[in-house]
Amino acid sequence: MDAVVGPRMRECPSFILTYIFSSSRAEIMTLIRTLSLFLALSLLPLAQVWAQSHSDVTVSEEEIEERVRSAPRGNAANNIAHFSPDGSRITTMTPGGTFAIRDLETKDILQSFPGQSRYTYEATWSPDGSMLASSSVDGTVHLWDVDSGQRVAVLDQFSNGSPTMGGGITEARFSPDGRYLAVLQRYTPGRVAVWDMQEEAEVMRVERSGKVYGMAWGEEGQQIYTAEEDGAMYSWSFPAGKEVDRWKVQDDYLFDIDVAGSRIVVGGRSGVLHVLNIDDGRIIQRLRQGSFVNRAAIVPNSPFVAGVSSDGMLKVWNSDTGALHFQRFAHNANAYSVTVSPDHRTLATVGQDRYVRLWDVETGALLGTIGGTETR
Fold first, then answer.
1. How far apart are the first and last CA of the chain?
2. Nearest 5 degrees, angle CA 14-CA 19-CA 20?
3. Do 80 and 350 meet the contact criterion of CB atoms below 8 Å apart?
4. Residue 151: its pLDDT value, please?
5. 136: three-class secondary structure by DSSP
6. What are the C-alpha distances in Å from 308 to residues 96, 153, 272, 292, 315?
7. How far apart are CA 362 and CA 325, in angstroms?
8. Which of 97, 103, 88, 57 is nearest to 365 (CA)?
9. Cα separations (Å) of 192 from 71, 210, 302, 337?
10. In terms of C-beta distances under 8 Å and separation of at least 24 residues, what long-range contacts does 141-146 make, across chains too?
């Protein structure tokens, strides 16, 4: 009987059809096994690459903690790390007060900057990624051109000029449109000042009698929010600098604040993350971090908020339900800060162990480490 050959079989080269119909079942099975082995060996390198890039997805919380505890002291990071607007780079501060731009994929240093005359707290990006603003204990803010690595301006008029911590500028934040730069002098007297980058002039100043620990722009750039040592949050109109709202939470010492969408999150000495509605100050959730909250961050376009604390823990919460999404022992000692990548998929934490660690927002997987011999 003639073999029935379908349309797809007619597309095969004639020698293959000849071999198939002239071979025994055993010979065909041998051919199939040989082809299967060939395909497996061909795809092995790709499988290994995939496994390596996803290796920490299935690593348990206990295994990550053991890895963090056993890591030698790092040397590449301090205080806080900021993602570039395009998400390809990150700024890292060194314990010596200098800072660098690193490639987020390779972790390699792309540019190094000398810092300032005294300890440099952080270096933040302008929204277009063309400029960095570094803030320092010396009471100044330095502006840097990212492409050339050159310092283009020194702003020294915001501080009381004291060479102690009291005169330090602890934060510098560009407005959403990049035109203005808000700077925070944390310690008594606390103050917020705003610099117009185009006019090269100060356009707003708010003086406080106590310490101001945290500052954030509203998403529209029309308000600035502060977290203060009296346990209250304030919103200030921009550029008038007038108090718009004051919200008190059950915390006598607020240390950080973040604003995104309709939510505000603050944390401090009580070890609680307070999530509030931005329109009326209504408390949505009180989330138990467990230890002094050093930094809090909202993950935009999601229900998640993150906090890091003095016990080294990173905790990510669902602020809609109040459920703990995941927790990780992120740093071997104090966890200083947490920031969110522009695509909202990655968290960067920095700790007293002088590492930056990168975490997947959805899974809690450890995606990468920057610092010392464990950089990978």
1. 64
2. 100
3. yes
4. 95
5. strand
6. 23, 33, 11, 8, 7
7. 8
8. 57
9. 39, 12, 29, 21
10. 141/169, 141/172, 141/181, 141/183, 141/195, 142/116, 144/113, 146/101, 146/111
* Mean pLDDT per 10-residue section of the chain, whose length is 376 residues: 43 49 61 55 43 52 91 85 98 86 94 83 96 91 95 81 58 97 86 94 92 94 94 95 93 90 94 95 95 97 98 98 98 96 98 96 96 54
Residue 73 and residue 331 in contact, taking contact as beta carbons nearer than 8 Å: no
Tokens 């919200």 found at: 247
**Residue 295 structure tokens:** 């930094």
Cβ–Cβ < 8 Å for 349, 308 = yes
The two structure tokens encoding residue 264: 């505000």
Residue with tokens 């008190």: 248
**Spatial CA neighbour of 223 closest among 233, 213, 231, 232:** 233
Nearest to 265 by CA among 222, 220, 209, 322: 322
Are 334 and 327 in contact, with CB atoms under 8 Å apart?
no
Neighbours of 54 (CB within 10 A): 13
The DSSP code for 352 is T
| CB 102 within 8 Å of CB 370 | yes
**How many CA atoms does the CB half-sphere of 51 hold within 13 Å?**
6
Burial group, residue 219, by CB count within 10 angstroms (0-12, 13-18, 19+): middle
Which token pair is 215? 């500052």
305-308 long-range contacts, CB within 8 A, separation 24+: 305/258, 305/263, 305/265, 305/273, 305/275, 306/338, 306/340, 306/347, 307/265, 307/267, 307/273, 307/338, 308/335, 308/336, 308/337, 308/338, 308/349, 308/351
DSSP string, 9-54: HHTS-HHHHHHHHHS-HHHHHHHHHHHHHHHHHHHHHHHHHHHHHT
